[in-house]
Amino acid sequence: MYIDMAKREAEGSHIMLGAQNVDLNLSGAFTGETSAAMLKDIGAQYIIIGHSERRTYHKESDELIAKKIRGAERAGPDSGSVHR
C-alpha cells in the first residue's frame, strides 16, 4: 500500500501512520529510499528502525541502525516515536 493511500484511508480514524524503514540520508537523490523528512511531511508518526528482516536480508548493522535513528530523530517524527 502506498503511504499516501494509507494516509487517506486513516483520516478521521484513530489509526496512526508509520513506516517500517527510513533512509539514513537527510536529503539528496537516493533512488528507492524514503527520508525522515519525507515521512514527516506525509504525516508519519512512527518509524520502525532495526527490524529483524532489514538486519537479516539487507545486512543492516548496529552502526547503520544508529545512524538511521539519529537522522530520524533530527528530521523525522517527534522524538520518542522512533522505534528500535
From TrEMBL:
Per the record, the similarity remark reads: Belongs to the triosephosphate isomerase family.
* Stored SUPFAM superfamilies: Triosephosphate isomerase (TIM) (SSF51351)
The cross-references to CDD domains, in alphabetical order and at most eight, read:
TIM
Query: Which reactions appear under catalytic activity for this entry?
Result: D-glyceraldehyde 3-phosphate = dihydroxyacetone phosphate
The molecule here is called Triosephosphate isomerase
Q: Which gene encodes it?
A: tpiA_2
Q: Which GO terms describe its biological process?
A: gluconeogenesis; glyceraldehyde-3-phosphate biosynthetic process; glycerol catabolic process; glycolytic process
Quote the cellular component terms of the Gene Ontology held in the record. cytosol
Assembly, per entry: Homodimer.
Annotated compartments: Cytoplasm
InterPro entries from the UniProt entry? Aldolase_TIM, TIM_sf, Triosephosphate_isomerase
Q: In the record, what terms sit under GO molecular function?
A: triose-phosphate isomerase activity
